[in-house]
Amino acid sequence: MSDTTITDNDRRRFIRAGMIGLTLAPLGSLLLTRIAQARGSGGIKGPSSAIAKLPENDKQAIALGYKEDANLVDTAKFNRGKDQVCQNCQLYSGSDGEEWGPCAIFSYRIDPKLNQNYVVSGKGWCRSWAPRATG
């Protein structure tokens, strides 16, 4: 056999293997996604009850003095008013009475484990607090 024939056969094998790999890759991805969903739900159908709570030790949360419980805010360091909580802040978009809800400041951030946007405590506080508009 000549060197050209061997090179042509190797090239054909490589292209064939690549085509098979490209064909099977989406199927493997689909299979892994289904396995992950099954493990994550614990066999129970429906949405997960886990929520992506913003951790107080998050760099941005620390910079803004965020606390899940507004009563734990260092008032010597931050000028927090008595009735200031996330639920009555203009940046908070959670429903009244809900324990956790989205905040405009952290809405673009995603919890890497749950793949959900972070939410803040309705009873929390950070230095970006601003009163809700009335009317």
Name some characteristics of this structure.
2 domains, 6% strand, High-Potential Iron-Sulfur Protein, Chain A, mainly alpha, 135 residues, two-stranded antiparallel ribbon
Describe the structure.
The relative contact order is 0.15. The longest helix is centred in the first third of the chain and has 39 residues, at 3-41. The protein has two domains: 1-44; 50-135, High potential iron-sulphur protein (High-Potential Iron-Sulfur Protein, Chain A, Irregular), CATH 4.10.490. It has helices at 3-41, 59-63, and strands at residues 100-101, 110-111, 116-117, 120-121. It is built from two helices and four strands, in the order H-H-E-E-E-E. By secondary structure, the protein is mostly helical.
Order of helices and strands: HHEEEE
* Global geometry: elongated
Report the CATH C-level class of the largest domain. Few Secondary Structures
Q: What is the typical, i.e. mean, pLDDT?
A: 82
CATH architecture of the largest domain: Irregular
Can you identify the CATH superfamily of the largest domain?
Answer: High potential iron-sulphur protein
Q: Biggest sheet, strands in spatial order?
A: 1-4
Number of domains: 2
Give helix % range. Answer: 25-40%
Q: Would you tell me the structural class of the helices and strands?
A: mainly alpha
- What fraction of residues sit in β-strands? 5-15%
Low-confidence stretches: 41-47
Span from first to last CA? 88 Å
Number of strands: 4
